[in-house]
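A.,

Following up on our hallway conversation. Structure tokens first:
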């Protein structure tokens, strides 16, 4: 019994002491994967920030259209421009979501190889840039609509 215990102890010591340290390439890959995951999170955070605004966009657009038709808004050209900005923001969000979900399907795991990261990271960086631009466009469209409606 004592010998069995010593054999198990020696085996455990040998297995744990042979632990291989990560190479520079493995560390670099881990850093790239972390950066990829952070960008994925950032994309979803910006998406989640502006997605609730889509309903507000449509409400403002409807209100502008209605008031323009009844003559309550004096500048029909400005009303048309602002309504178009709202539509463009809404359509941009729908297009971004479709494009993003095709490139990065829900539940797809992070890339695990350098080649996969090198392939997907530039597309993800572009998607993050696009959603940030869309956020700014959306917020500006809402501000312009509220100003037009004196809200």
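Then the amino acids I'd put at each of the 151 positions:
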């Amino acid at each position: 019994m004592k010998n069995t215990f010593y054999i198990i102890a020696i085996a455990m010591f040998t297995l744990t002491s042979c632990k291989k340290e990560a190479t520079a390439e493995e560390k670099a890959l881990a850093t790239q994967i972390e950066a990829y995951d952070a960008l994925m999170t950032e994309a979803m955070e910006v998406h989640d920030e502006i997605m609730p605004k889509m309903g507000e966009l449509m409400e403002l657009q409807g209100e502008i259209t209605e008031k323009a038709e009844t003559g309550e808004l004096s500048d029909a050209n400005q009303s048309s421009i602002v309504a178009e900005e709202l539509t463009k923001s809404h359509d941009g969000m729908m297009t971004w979501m479709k494009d993003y979900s095709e490139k990065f399907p829900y539940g797809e795991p992070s890339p695990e190889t350098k080649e996969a990261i090198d392939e997907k990271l530039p597309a993800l960086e572009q998607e993050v840039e696009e959603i940030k631009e869309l956020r700014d466009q959306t917020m500006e469209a809402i501000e312009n609509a509220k100003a037009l409606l004196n809200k």
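The chain has one domain: 23-148. Curious whether your intuition agrees with the design.

B.
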